[in-house]
Amino acid sequence: GENVEQHPSTLSVQEGDSAVIKCTYSDSASNYFPWYKQELGKRPQLIIDIRSNVGEKKDQRIAVTLNKTAKHFSLHITETQPEDSAVYFCAAPEDSSYKLIFGSGTRLLVRP
Amino acid sequence: DTGVSQDPRHKITKRGQNVTFRCDPISEHNRLYWYRQTLGQGPEFLTYFQNEAQLEKSRLLSDRFSAERPKGSFSTLEIQRTEQGDSAMYLCASSLRNEKLFFGSGTQLSVL
Prior knowledge:
A: 6-stranded mixed sheet; 11 strands
């Protein structure tokens, strides 16, 4: 089955700096890679996703890059703001199903 | 409300009691998933339905756990003879024929 590893587990940055979170996956057949943001006590919310036919996708201050050869993908947040503070999860589908396997999460703290 | 809703938000029970949670997915979504999340970890897959058919159950799901989706709309997750190790956030998610999952706010279970 799919195995998703995420790092770092915690990340502290100064407001305005960039943050990068990385994930690796094991199933070479995986073709969809989402990122979820979870604020304290709230539901995980999809913030950006990418399919394997592209290498990068941007949405305002966030971007995701994918390296299929190396089987890793990354979340990039530029010009971080205190409201970006949350736990971020990457995920990848297992086998050819639509079931997502999640990483263990990265707690991002943006210091004002 | 057009999102995924879960009830109750919180449940406190004594060890050995049975509990049941409900999930109402986004109305047109045909897939429904149950995940479990413990503190500091990513969501862990439990089971999922396509319409009313339960297509997969995690090996982590003991016989004390059962889920139903009788009419292909709402779903219930029952835990019999609860144990302290069952304490977690139980998340429901739904999707429309792809991997893009939309989560509910979860049911926080505490087993005393």
